[in-house]
Amino acid sequence: MNKPALLIIDILNDSFASPQLSAKRAELCDSINKLLFFAREKQFHIIWVRQEFKADLSDAFLEMRDENIKMYIEGTFGSKILEELQQMDDEREIIKKRYSAFFQTELDDLLKRLNPSFLVLAGVNTHACIRTAAIDAYQLDYRVQIISDCVASPDKRHHEVTLDYLERISKVSKLDKFKEEFNAQ
C-alpha cells in the first residue's frame, strides 16, 4: 500500500503576525505536533511548504509588490518554520511564491515520484493557501484529507465557509477521527 503524504503549509513566524492567528498558535501547533507524531509513526511522506520571497519582492505576488508588504522574506526569522514544530532532516521542503503549494513549484513532480495514496493538509490560512492547495490537488487527481483542527485562518467565518466548501472535493475531519479511521484500514 502506498503511504499518504502530509503537507504542512505556511506554519511560519510571519504567518502568526495577526492577533487572530497568534491567539490560536499554541493550540494549532499542539494539534500539528500530534499529527506529525502520528504521520512519522505511520511513515507518511512529510513535506513542509514555505512561502518565501526575495527582499526586493521581485518574486512576490502583485498585492505584496503594490503595497510593499515585507513578509516571508528569504533568510529572515519571518520565513522560518515555528520553533514549536520540529522539521526532521529527511523531510522534504517546497518553497512557494503564491497561495497554492502547486503553482509553479516542483510539488506535483515530487508527488508523482512518491505516488502517495492520498494527501493530508495542515497549516494556514484555510481560506487561501489550504483552499488553493486542496483545489489544485483535486484537479490533479489526488485524494485530499484536511484535518480541521490542524488548519486555521485569522477570520473564523472564512475558515468555516472554506471547510464547508472543501468537503465537496475532499474529506474533512478532526485529528482524532482521522487517526481512528486510518488505524482501522
Topology readout:
Layout: E1 5-9, H1 19-41, E2 45-51, H2 62-67, E3 92-96, H3 107-114, E4 119-124, H4 126-139, E5 144-152, H5 156-166, E6 171-173, H6 175-184
Parallel strand pairs: 1-2, 1-4, 2-3, 4-5, 5-6
Helix pairs in contact: 4-5
Instruction: Provide the helix percentage.
Output: 25-40%
Quaternary structure annotation? single chain
By CATH's scheme, which homologous superfamily applies? Isochorismatase-like
What portion of residues belong to β-strands?
Answer: 15-25%
How would you describe what is shown here?
The protein is an alpha/beta fold and 185 residues long. It has a single domain (5-184), classed as 3-Layer(aba) Sandwich (Rossmann fold). Helices cover 39% and strands 19% of the residues. The chain has six helices and six strands; from the N terminus they run βαβαβαβαβαβα. The chain has helices at residues 19-41, 62-67, 107-114, 126-139, 156-166, 175-184; strands at residues 5-9, 45-51, 92-96, 119-124, 144-152, 171-173. Strands 3-2-1-4-5-6 form a six-stranded parallel sheet, with helices on both faces. The chain starts with a strand and ends with a helix. The mean pLDDT is 97.
Annotation keywords:
alpha/beta, Rossmann fold, 19% strand, 185 residues, globular, 6 strands, single chain
Question: Brief description of this entry?
Answer:
With 185 residues, the chain is of the alpha/beta class. The chain has helices spanning 19-41, 62-67, 107-114, 126-139, 156-166, 175-184; strands spanning 5-9, 45-51, 92-96, 119-124, 144-152, 171-173.
